[in-house]
Design the sequence.
């Protein structure tokens, strides 16, 4: 079945780095864009980043620009989020999600398959 | 960035009730809106996309409506498994933005 599995979360001090991974299975990895979405404790969902199916186009939310990088490795069917200069406010569960084209007569992309998430805690 | 204002932030209802949740966008987003359900400790699950299209496998008691700036998710005949948090997501442009969420609790 179509599956995404995140890993790499943990406890890290402010200013340090962490790399999250998201391994895909059950679908053709290189055919889909992929997102990272996070959820701080007790808060709502926040979109973080997206990468196109070919890896050539990337967008990030302003609050992480210059600190986070999204990239993917098709040989490993894996999406990554490199997080540098981490801040307390980056503490969250990080989900990866697949961008499915769900509409028939037009293009419409929605996050249709999600991983279970990995927890990042930034604390001194 | 487009702001998504979701209301109410929480509601209490009984099994069998019909409830409605609304999202208002700060600008016209056509029908580029999705609704997600999330249970504690679990990942979000896509219920509705393109404002009113039911995702495959989602029960028909869930329905979505609206276009432009105002959108509604309706859950008819609530079942015990429907008690969860629901969030809207605008897919119109980047950065993608979610509503603040509505927690549907058992009365």
Sequence:
């Amino acid at each position: 079945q179509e599956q995404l599995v995140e890993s790499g979360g943990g406890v890290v001090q402010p200013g340090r780095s962490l790399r999250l991974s998201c391994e895909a299975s059950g679908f053709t990895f290189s055919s889909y864009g992929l997102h990272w979405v996070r959820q701080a404790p007790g808060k709502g969902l926040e979109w973080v980043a997206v990468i196109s199916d070919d890896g050539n186009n990337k967008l990030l939310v302003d609050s992480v620009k210059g600190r986070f990088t999204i990239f993917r490795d098709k040989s490993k069917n894996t999406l990554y989020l490199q997080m540098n200069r981490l801040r307390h406010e980056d503490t969250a569960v990080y989900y990866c999600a697949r961008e499915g084209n769900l509409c028939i007569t037009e293009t419409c992309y929605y996050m249709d398959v999600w991983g279970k998430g990995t927890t990042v805690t930034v604390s001194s | 960035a487009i702001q998504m204002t979701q209301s109410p932030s929480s509601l209490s209802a009984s099994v069998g009730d019909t409830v409605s949740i609304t999202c208002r966008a700060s600008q016209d987003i056509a029908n580029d809106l999705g609704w997600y359900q999330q249970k504690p400790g679990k990942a979000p699950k896509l219920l509705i996309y393109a404002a009113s299209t039911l995702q495959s496998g989602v029960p028909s008691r869930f329905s979505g409506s609206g276009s432009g700036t105002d959108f509604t998710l309706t859950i008819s005949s609530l079942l015990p498994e429907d008690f969860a948090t629901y969030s809207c997501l605008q897919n119109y442009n980047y950065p993608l933005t979610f509503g603040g969420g509505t927690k549907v609790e058992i009365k």
Remarks:
- The radius of gyration of chain A is 14 Å.
